[in-house]
């Protein structure tokens, strides 16, 4: 899986986390409102179980987000490392090409110098 896919999955996990946080807040709000009126013990217990379940799912989602963030961090570091390696290779390739070009220019200049020196000698003889 590539970095972009990992980042997309992280975004989705964070969206789920926000949804679970909203569910916990809603469940706690409902529980508070229940405290303002007379309710049966069974109804209160159901709401408490619901709040516990929401909190459990929230903790699980937080763990999933942490895991995904670690994976994204690892992919990002891998990508940055690959980019650095590529830059080094490109720099070496460019340097080698420049050295080759300079060597070729030096050889051409030497050949031209040799020809220019040889021409006047040929005319004199």
Low-confidence stretches: none
Question: Helical residue percent?
Answer: over 70%
What's the rounded overall pLDDT mean?
A: 88
Describe the biggest sheet? Answer: none
- Please work out how many helical segments DSSP would assign: 2
How do the SSEs run, as a string of H and E?
Answer: HH
Distance between the termini: 77 Å
Number-wise, the strands total 0
What is the CA-based Rg, rounded? 36 Å
Which structural category fits the helices and strands?
mainly alpha
How would you sum up the global shape? rod-shaped
Strand content: under 5%
Give the tags.
2 helices, 125 residues, 0% strand, mainly alpha, 94% helix, rod-shaped
Summarize the structure.
With 125 residues, the protein is an all-alpha fold.
What would your notes on this structure say?
With 125 residues, this protein is an all-alpha fold. The protein has 2 helices and no strands. The protein has helices at 3-35, 41-124. Helix 1 packs antiparallel against helix 2 (41-124).
Layout of SSEs?
Elements: H1 3-35, H2 41-124
């Amino acid at each position: 899986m590539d970095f972009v896919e990992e980042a997309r999955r992280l975004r989705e996990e964070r969206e789920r986390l926000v949804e679970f946080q909203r569910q916990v807040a809603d469940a706690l709000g409902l529980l508070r409102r229940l405290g303002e009126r007379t309710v049966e013990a069974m109804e209160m217990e159901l709401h408490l179980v619901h709040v516990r379940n929401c909190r459990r799912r929230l903790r699980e989602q937080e763990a999933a987000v942490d895991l995904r963030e670690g994976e994204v961090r690892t992919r990002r570091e891998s990508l940055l490392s690959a980019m650095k390696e590529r830059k080094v290779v490109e720099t070496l390739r460019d340097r080698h090409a420049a050295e080759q070009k300079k060597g070729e220019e030096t050889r051409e200049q030497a050949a031209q110098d040799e020809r220019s020196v040889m021409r006047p000698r040929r005319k004199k003889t």
